[in-house]
From TrEMBL, chain A:
It is found in: Cell membrane; Membrane. Belongs to the CPA3 antiporters (TC 2.A.63) subunit A family. One of its GO terms (biological process) is proton transmembrane transport. Residues 123-415 form the NADH:quinone oxidoreductase/Mrp antiporter transmembrane domain. It comes from Geobacillus genomosp. 3. This is Cation:proton antiporter. The keyword Transferase does not apply. The lineage of its organism: Bacteria, Bacillati, Bacillota, Bacilli, Bacillales. The keyword Phosphoprotein does not apply. GO terms for molecular function: antiporter activity. The chain crosses the membrane at residues 6-23, 30-48, 68-94, 106-122, 128-148, 160-183, 203-228, 240-261, 267-285, 297-319, 331-357, 369-393, 425-447, 468-487, 520-541, 590-610, 622-642, 647-667, 673-694, 706-729, 767-785. Residues 633-696 form the MrpA C-terminal/MbhD domain.
Automatic annotation (TrEMBL), chain B:
The keyword Transmembrane helix applies. This is Cation:proton antiporter. The lineage of its organism: Bacteria, Bacillati, Bacillota, Bacilli, Bacillales. Its main location: membrane. Belongs to the CPA3 antiporters (TC 2.A.63) subunit B family. It comes from Geobacillus genomosp. 3. PANTHER family: NA(+)/H(+) ANTIPORTER SUBUNIT B, NA(+)_H(+) ANTIPORTER SUBUNIT B. Keywords: Cell membrane, Membrane, Transmembrane, Transmembrane helix. One of its GO terms (cellular component) is plasma membrane. The chain crosses the membrane at residues 12-31, 37-56, 68-87, 107-131.
Length: 798, 138
């Protein structure tokens, strides 16, 4: 059943094009809507959770089966994917007009993505997970480039594809290393069970780094976040769904899923926590400078993902330390899971609100917006709820998870191992700074859009409140924001506890992982930090215009986007330059490459492998006739090479051929001699024919130009082949099989001409194909000569 | 140009060359020779005709489509091989033996000769196709 739940969106995607083509009166989205809704109700039936798995054989011989397993983490993500998916589909029905948009494409991509994402979070087989992972990259690429007639869309789609596929491939590498370490299994649960003995394994570190690279690129962590702001060219429902609630959390999912395997490594803790924290600060700082609503939300997504990532890093500390520490740091995991849910709700609603503003006013530029409060009261309410939750203001759910975040970071500062006693104090400070900027951009988002004086002249459209259908989804999310804020414990035992338990892999088994989220702990450090965030954030907002110039101080040349663009451009240019440097188009250059490569490989092989033991024990007596013929052949060869005119070269070549024929006579090969004689005659006449037909213009009778390189190369090849022949001859260790032919030619094949018996009887198969070669050559010549395209029409068939 | 001598000599010599070719062909299994060289020699005889006369005349004298000859030759070679398969032995297994024929009496026959005949026809066809094609081209 679970397997079918995962692939059902993919199957449904097959039918969407027919619906969008033949049922034109109804918006295709209405047909798509039941799928995520049904899936959501299916997944919610699993509460309270009893983990279970299922396997459908796929390639059992390679250990690759469609193996699914649902635990707390998988269920949490499935609920997010299907729940937010339903709302996004509903929203998109009102957002995308059915007359103008290619709805069939849109919903196919969206369903592909939904199925892929469910596959990522529910697969227990790493290879299947990877397949679904790439399918998310791929469908996200299609969705970002949905308006493919726009340059920016194509640029954003390509950028996200390059970065996430780069990460996806390194993830695959990590999986393969883990599979090697585990002796061939691909089951993630199997890996987790085996993980205890791995930290000493030489492949442990590379596997960890590769998997982290995959997770960081997908989750837009520093410095790989650059694709996400450009992915905002997608339609807003896509941004809300993929780039805030689901796909960017796939990396979070991977980190959470592999925590039980890698958390014992201090490097994992430091990398996850450090990169997460750096991303949080960097992106929240840059979010405040954005003038595009979706750009602001993109940076805020990046920073919130950094927050969750750093919490997972802090949670990995639970695998160090003693029992009381375990409980303390598991709280960080709980905070991460809780913030994951909260972020999905408020960011989804904020994107939808931004989409409504865009849809109704025609612009997303906050310099042109303002004063929409009176015009769009409902959108305003949604945006305020979302922003305040994002900023971490009570009583919304963002406040709770931000408090838990501060608490966890203060805990990290108190840890006294893994060098945290030295550097740990940085984390609460950075977390606090990041939160101040989070507060700032949250307030900017609402303030610049809805407050201030209306600027009707700057708006492309005359705005009014969005239609009710478009408002349903953001309102539902906003209600959830408030609901989870007021009654967080609805979630705590049902969803958060099993998810956190899956992350720490029952580390607290027997201790009972109890989650209780309360609004008020007394006057703790984190409360003071929150008060400080609000105070300083408000101050920064008030004085924002006066210090905005700080952003200009950062040199644009050094920004990561510049770096990305420059490296892509340089790679293209350098590849082009390299290719045009060695692919000259001259056959002689390629011959130089081929012969040089052949010499290099053969010389290296001889130098490394061959014993130098030339022996001449097999060599026969040299007679006078042979010597004379050798001299004749040499003379012919030298004449051919040194000839000034082509005619001389052709005749000299013929003389070499007839000498060879004499050699055959001398070495007692009458059949060969006969054939060589006739063939040489024919080929010399053909040469003469070619010579006669050379075009008049370029028929300069010039000698061969001397090039030192060519001379060295040809001497080298000649010497090398001679040496190999001598070496091979002196290594002749086995008797030839010719004796068999001599003895059996008459007995078995009724012939006395052994050569001919071999040709037609013992090895007739070769002869069969040699006459085929001749036939093909003749037909080729016939076709070349007879089937010439008429002059001036040579390009006709290209 | 009067080519009387050439043509007269050709008329005599061509037969000798063709007979030599046939001799090479049939002697091939016991003495130097065989389908390949026999084919080349036969083609040589035809080339001599081409030299003495023009292409149209030779086509009337020897009305053979040489491209067809290639196909027939390949069929002979392949058919000899497939004949073995019919008798449930591996491809290209030859059979030989003595057969009493009505007129000729005791004759030693060998299927390899059929294979060689294929080679012969292909070689004649190939050589003549090449030479004729190039010769006809302006």
């Amino acid at each position: 059943m679970l397997n079918w739940a995962i692939v059902s969106p993919l199957i449904a995607a097959l039918f969407v094009p027919f619906l969008s083509k033949y049922v034109r009166s109804i918006h295709t989205g209405w047909f798509v809507l039941p799928i995520p809704v049904l899936l959501f109700s299916y997944f919610i039936q699993h509460l309270p959770l009893k983990p279970y798995g299922q396997t459908i054989p796929w390639i059992p011989s390679l250990g690759m089966d469609f193996q699914v397993y649902m635990d707390g983490l998988g269920l949490l993500f499935s609920l997010l994917i299907t729940g937010i998916g339903s709302l996004v589909v509903l929203y998109s029905i009102y957002y995308l007009p059915k007359e103008k948009e290619k709805l069939g494409h849109f919903y196919v991509y969206l369903l592909l993505f939904m199925g892929a994402m469910l596959g990522v979070v529910l697969s227990d087989n790493a290879i299947v997970l990877y397949l679904f992972w790439e399918l998310t990259s791929f469908s996200s690429f299609l969705l970002i480039g949905y308006w493919n007639e726009r340059d920016r869309s194509r640029y954003g789609a390509q950028k996200s594809m390059l970065i996430t596929v780069f990460g996806g491939l390194s993830l695959l590498g990590g999986f393969l290393l883990l599979s090697i370490m585990s002796g061939g299994t691909y089951s993630i649960r199997g890996w987790i069970d085996m993980a205890g003995a791995w930290p000493e394994h030489p492949l442990f570190l590379p596997a960890m780094l590769l998997i982290l690279l995959g997770a960081f690129t997908k989750s837009a962590q520093f410095p790989f976040y650059i694709w996400l702001p450009d992915a905002m060219e997608a339609p807003t429902p896509v941004s809300a769904y993929l780039h805030s609630a689901t796909m960017v959390k796939a990396g979070i999912y991977i980190v959470a899923r592999f925590t039980p395997i890698f958390a014992v490594s201090p490097l994992w803790v430091w990398l996850v926590m450090g990169v997460g924290m750096a991303t949080l600060c960097w992106a929240s700082f840059h979010a405040a400078r954005q003038t595009d609503l979706k750009g602001l939300l993109a940076y805020s997504t990046v920073s919130q993902l950094g927050l969750i990532m750093s919490l997972l890093g802090a949670g990995a500390l639970a695998f160090h330390g003693d029992l009381s520490d375990r409980r303390l740091y598991t709280a960080a995991v709980i905070a991460a899971v809780f913030h994951l849910i909260n972020h999905a709700t408020f960011k989804g609603s904020l994107f939808m609100a931004a989409g409504i503003v865009d849809h109704e006013t025609g612009t997303r530029d906050i310099r042109r917006l303002g004063g929409l409060l009176g015009i769009m009261p409902v959108t305003f309410t949604v945006a305020v709820i979302g922003s305040l939750s994002m900023a971490g203001i009570p009583p919304f759910n963002g406040f709770l998870s931000k408090e838990m975040f501060f608490a966890a970071m203060v805990q990290v500062a108190n840890a006294d191992w893994l060098s945290l006693e030295v550097w740990g104090a940085l984390f609460p400070v950075l977390a606090w700074v990041g939160s101040v900027f989070t507060f700032l951009y949250s307030v900017l988002f609402v303030g610049k859009t809805f407050f201030g004086a209306p600027k009707p002249s700057a708006w492309p459209k005359q705005p009014h409140e969005a239609p009710a259908g478009m408002l349903v989804a953001p309102v539902v999310l906003a209600v959830l924001v408030i609901g989870f804020g007021l009654f967080p414990n609805v979630l705590s035992e049902t969803v958060i506890a099993p998810a956190a338990d899956a992350v720490v892999n029952g580390l607290l088994r027997g201790e009972g992982l109890s989650v209780h989220i309360s609004h008020w702990h007394g006057w703790t450090t984190e409360v003071w930090m929150t008060i400080g965030v609000i105070a300083v954030g408000a101050l920064l907002y008030k004085t924002f215009p006066s210090w905005k110039r700080v952003y200009g101080a950062f040199p644009e040349q050094l920004s990561l986007n510049r770096l990305y663009d420059a490296s892509v451009r340089h790679m293209e240019e350098q590849s082009y330059r390299l290719t045009s440097a060695y692919m000259t188009g001259y056959v002689r250059t390629y011959f130089v490459y081929i012969f040089s490569a052949m010499m290099a490989l053969l010389i290296a092989t001889i130098a490394l492998k061959v014993d130098w033991g030339l022996s001449f024990r097999h060599v026969a007596e040299v007679g006078v006739h042979e010597l004379i013929l050798v001299l004749a052949a040499l003379a012919g060869t030298v004449t051919t090479v040194a000839a000034k005119s082509r005619l001389v070269a052709i005749i000299a070549l013929g003389s070499v051929g007839y000498t060879v024929s004499l050699f055959f006579v001398l070495f007692r090969a009458p059949d060969l001699a006969l054939t060589q004689l006739v063939i040489e005659t024919i080929s010399v006449s053909l040469f003469l024919l070619c010579f006669y037909h050379l075009p008049k213009l370029s028929r300069h009778e010039k000698g061969v130009r001397f090039r030192l390189g060519n001379a060295i190369l040809s001497l080298g090849v000649g010497a090398l082949v001679s040496v190999i022949a001598l070496l091979a001859y002196s290594e002749k260790n086995f008797a030839s099989i010719a004796q068999y032919h001599i003895e059996n030619a008459y007995e078995k094949a009724a012939g006395k001409n052994i050569v001919n018996v071999i040709l037609v009887d013992f090895r007739g198969f070769d002869t069969l194909f040699e006459i085929c070669v001749l036939a093909i050559a003749a037909l080729g010549i016939y076709a070349l000569v007879k089937l010439k395209a008429p002059k001036g029409e040579s390009g006709k068939y290209e | 140009m009067n080519e009387l001598i050439l043509r007269t000599v050709t008329a005599v010599v061509t037969f000798i060359i063709i007979l030599f070719g046939i001799q090479l062909f049939f002697a091939g299994h016991y003495y130097p020779g065989g389908g390949f060289i026999a084919g080349l020699v036969t083609a040589g005889a035809l080339v001599l005709l081409l030299l003495a006369f023009d292409i149209q005349t030779v086509k009337t004298m020897v009305p053979v489509n040489y491209r067809m000859l290639i196909g027939v030759g390949l069929l002979f070679a392949l058919g000899t091989g497939l004949g073995g398969v019919v008798f449930d032995v591996p491809f290209l297994t030859h059979a030989h033996g003595h057969v009493m024929l009505p007129v000729l009496g005791d004759v030693s026959l060998h299927t390899a000769v059929l294979f060689d005949l294929g080679v012969y026809l292909v070689v004649v066809g190939v050589t003549m196709t090449i030479i004729e094609t190039i010769g006809e081209e302006e």
